[in-house]
Write a structure and sequence with these properties.
102 residues, mainly alpha, single chain
């Protein structure tokens, strides 16, 4: 299949295919404006729900997350805010992102 091509030409061809594949993957991975807006809205709602917790409860959630006790943090939020599992997990995920350095 590659008769007549030198080793360097074959490697250049492979590199070119890899670059094209990478660029195609990057292009297909772009977030649509609608999904970005939905994610942003969910993050804002999660932050608002966290702010509804008392200061003591916020510190307790932070402590649980720092200790790696995500499930306990979710349970605490569900009980305190009377929310569903999905909403409580959104709050925990948002809080973890806001706590992470960088």
């Amino acid at each position: 299949m590659f008769e007549g091509l030198s080793d360097s030409q074959i490697w250049m061809l492979i590199a070119g295919v890899a670059v094209v594949a990478f660029m195609a993957g990057r292009r297909s991975a772009k977030v649509s404006p609608e999904s970005f807006e939905l994610r942003l809205k969910a993050e804002q709602e999660a932050a608002q729900n966290f702010s509804r917790l008392s200061g003591a409860m916020q510190r307790e959630v932070d402590r649980l997350l720092a200790d790696g006790k995500m499930i306990e943090a979710i349970k605490l939020i569900r009980a305190e805010l009377n929310t569903g599992l999905y909403e409580a997990k959104q709050v925990v995920d948002q809080r973890k992102r806001s706590m992470s350095p960088g």
